[in-house]
Amino acid sequence: MNDPTPATEPRAVTERYARRDAAQDAQRYSLYASASVLQAHQERLCAMRQLWRNHGWESLADLHITEAGCGTGGNLQDLVRLGADPTRLQGLELLPVRAAAARRQLPAAVAVLEGDALQARIAPGSQQAVLAFTLFSSILDAGFRTTLARQMWQWVAPGGGVLVYDFVVDNPRNPDVEGVPLAEVRRLFPSARITSRKLTLAPPLARRLPAALLAPAAIVLPFARTHRLTWAVKPLTSSP
User: Fold this and answer.
1) How many whole angstroms separate alpha carbon 174 and alpha carbon 178?
2) Is 159 left (phi over 0), alpha (psi -120 to 50) or beta?
3) How far apart are the first and last CA of the chain?
4) What's the burial of 13, exposed, middle or buried (CB within 10 Å: 0-12/13-18/19+)?
5) d(CA 68, CA 94)
6) Looking at the whole model, is its pTM more than 0.90?
């Protein structure tokens, strides 16, 4: 394992995202243009809602929720639609361009903080949930990944948790990311109570299927799912 490198890893992540954004086809990841992206998004949203309802949360209205690596704000928009109070939501985003886009698209009451999440001033135990969606897979330095996970864990109130959505296998076409299997999530949050389920039909396969077959294929081909949604809950008696 490498030592944590707070100064260099965020810069490396910024450079990797810049390369990715320059080469990325925006239409491929558009909810409107891509039926497979829309289906995966809806599946994930339904799974997140069910997971939290099973956790005992009948409403999101009174919960403080932070997303680390909020990008352009799509997940925070989903939380608002699910009933979260915008004044209790905040997003942390390293990349200035994405942070600016999130500010434009989100309700003004949602706080968007630009910069390294390790520098965010969030009180320990103040958040009922912290989201990390395709975040850890973009952090290649294992020491920094561990440091960030510990920081996020400190923000979580006992009985709350960290919600991780990420792919579980390496992408041979993209050396700038690394798969995050369930064992890695357990390592990052060793004292958590874990609930996890596999989601998301492998994108290369999903893009080739007709829209009408996407939902059935996701059901009958569980081995072809490439991502996990994992809820890592902090015990009520846990220390920060």
Assistant:
1) 9
2) left
3) 24
4) buried
5) 9
6) yes
Check if the beta carbon of residue 23 is closer than 8 Å to that of residue 190.
no
Residue reference for tokens 């997003």: 91
Please report the DSSP string for 206-227 in residue order.
HTTS-HHHHHHHHHH-GGGEEE
The Cβ of residue 74 has, within 10 Å, a number of other Cβ atoms equal to: 16
Percentage of the chain beyond pLDDT 90 is 75
Q: Does domain 8-233 have CATH number 3.40.50.150?
A: yes
Q: What is the DSSP string of the chain?
A: -PPP-TTHHHHHHHHHHHHHHHH--GGGG-TTT-HHHHHHHHHHHHHHHHHHHHTT-S-STT--EEEES-TTSHHHHHHHHTT--GGGEEEEES-HHHHHHHHHHS-TTSEEEES-GGG----TT-EEEEEEES-GGG---HHHHHHHHHHHHHHEEEEEEEEEEEESS--TT-TT-----HHHHHHHSTTPEEEEEEEEE-HHHHTTS-HHHHHHHHHH-GGGEEEEEEEEEPPTT---
Q: How many C-beta atoms surround the C-beta of residue 6 within 10 A?
A: 14
Query: In whole angstroms, what is the distance from residue 64 CA to residue 148 CA?
Result: 19
Q: Which residues contact 163 (CB under 8 A, 6 or more apart)?
A: 48, 51, 129, 130, 131, 132, 133, 229, 230, 231, 232
pLDDT digits (tens, 9 = 90+) for 186-216: 999 999 999 999 999 999 899 999 999 998 8
